[in-house]
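S1.2 Input.
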Amino acid sequence: MEQHISEQVEPDQVGPTFQAVFQAADDLLRREQRGEQSFGAQEQIRRISRQLLLRVEPDERLDQLELLIGSGSSIATVIDTVMMLGEQHGKYGGEWREGSETLITLSELARLENLALAAIREEASAGSLVKSPRMPDVLTCWATWNRGECRTWVSREITDDDGLLAFLEPFMNDAGAPSASARGPRVERRLDHRTLRPFLEPGSIVDRVRELAKRDSVNEQHKHLLDRYVLDYELLQQATSADGSDVEPDSFAA
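S1.3 Output.
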């Protein structure tokens, strides 16, 4: 598809092609999340989006993107596209170099960020945000743009235990495979306190997480991650009580 876009797609076909890609995005991301495919859907969508934007004049790109955001497209893909464009300006962990490619201007990026924030609010209000693929990434941007608003939404979502479990599940699914630490030993996969900290106080849910881990409806992998979350918290509390220092959970051997 990338090759087809770069060679054959005309400027008046960019809008419909964009719409088709963004409409299919959530399904592709969910399939990948379930392990049904592993072709790097998000990265491929990024590359296709870049190719499409290159097929239209610079002064028309913002219009194309505004239409996408306003059409109710995949919120995960909207946010990732804004991040991709922001990285070109040195935002969101990107590195800007003089003369490097930027598909839109900084003022246009600010406009898109505001539209993306409005789209997140709409998804949250509709009750569909927690079910969105790559929800943690969406929340990270929300917390970057309006942390207080994001945390208020999270506190409402996790009022009951079912809501808390629904909120935590995407973080557990994205916990990742074990990896090697700088010290050499293997580090066990975990539901990391630091990952959740922008959205809530990790210690405020420990007792509830302990009870969730006892539920028969929770699968064994998630039970393990919930139990490990509690253990990390208890070890951190013990270390803090012992010497008054703030020790991160990764300081402990898996």
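S1.4 Remarks. Confidence is low (pLDDT under 50) at residues 176-187.
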